[in-house]
């Protein structure tokens, strides 16, 4: 159904749901989570109306009868409560009494692994010690130290294509640049690049249990071997710092080491890549943004924040810890609540003129990195990479456009856009 014709009535369903779900809250939101491509300038626009004042403050998206696990909003395929308004999403991310991250991003359970994804799947107060342990490696002062290295990689990559007048900005640039930085930060061997991306794809996007299991076995064997190698031969990179680090005077357990290194591997690989591809797609489809940033480079920092707000590649779920009443329903312990970030980031009660891309926007506190204690640890790195990329790009590359015939359809989420050939006139 075209995005423009969706209404609350058009998405109502009478699919089976638990007893605590009133019939008038049941809607199909499977389309809203980024598995369906579209070719709109703002590919997330189709979710914006869900934060309007006429929409109930809590909805329920049941699993479609007969659908495979993973097709419903909750990762378990069981169906989930969904909140779409800014204020309610904010509560889910910050109310650690009622909402837990237990089990989040624990794909490793598929092959029977029992270690936790640290720090994401750990609730406070225990979460704090891991966060404090990792924070110095992602602090603003650490990012200042990485600035020159990030800039060197980006400049080298831009200069390699400037005179050619074209590049596949998604495949050959967006996919490569942040992963090179991340691998350098962690100390991973550069030849693992393609293998890492293949594993990541199979785990997150293959929808095949067999491929996912093979990839999980492959990456975890590699990471455990790498941890053992760094235990024996420390270097100046992050994996070494983790495996030789101490929390409250104690060395980390094997479960903690693999839990942290695994989750950083998972979170650090393709998130920035997807963001870069969508950022360039937006500038191709709305060239006025290029013109504005080229003539006002001082806006690049706030423009990065606006790209992030308008491109919420992930929506996060939380597990309900105890029964409670909320917006006229009883939410039960064990239920999941999904926060629809592509809706909250466009809530008209929070953002003036939410569908306009405004690089001068003030107080741009969006949910692309979620909120509360699990606010993305890599956010300072991601922001720095995006800022440096735009800085150096506009210095070297003139107005660019999609190559004739390029397919600009995009999945509004982490799947994003695999290929986006762009071109510019070479002087
Ligand atoms: C634009 C790029 C990125 C986006 C959009 C993004 C998004 C997110 C989101 C939505 C979460 C919270 C998930 C949840 O609460 O369920 C998160 C957490 C996290 N991210 Fe990122 N991320 C990005 C880049 C990175 C990078 C580059 C790294 C590491 C190098 C990273 C490491 C982490 C970690 C460790 C957490 C868990 C934080 C905690 O639980 O305390 N992220 N990220």
General description of the model:
The strands form four sheets. A five-stranded mixed sheet has the order 1-2-10-7-3, with helices on one face. The chain has a three-stranded antiparallel sheet with strand order 4-12-11. The chain is 42% helix and 9% strand. A hairpin with a 2-residue loop joins β8 (324-326) and β9. The chain is α+β, with helices and mostly antiparallel strands and 427 residues long. It has a single domain, classed as Cytochrome p450 (Orthogonal Bundle). Bound molecules: protoporphyrin IX containing FE. The site of protoporphyrin IX containing FE has 24 residues, from α11, α12 and α16.
Short description:
With 427 residues, this protein is α+β, with helices and mostly antiparallel strands.
Write the SSE topology.
Elements: H1 8-11, H2 45-48, E1 59-62, E2 79-83, H3 86-94, E3 99-100, H4 126-134, H5 140-162, E4 166-168, H6 169-174, H7 177-186, H8 193-205, H9 209-232, H10 238-243, E5 246-247, E6 250-251, H11 254-268, H12 271-285, H13 287-295, H14 300-310, E7 317-320, E8 324-326, E9 329-331, E10 336-339, H15 341-344, H16 379-396, E11 400-402, E12 421-424
Parallel strand pairs: 2-10
Antiparallel strand pairs: 1-2, 3-7, 4-12, 5-6, 7-10, 8-9, 11-12
Helix pairs in contact: 5-16, 8-9, 9-11, 12-13, 14-16
The structure holds protoporphyrin IX containing FE.
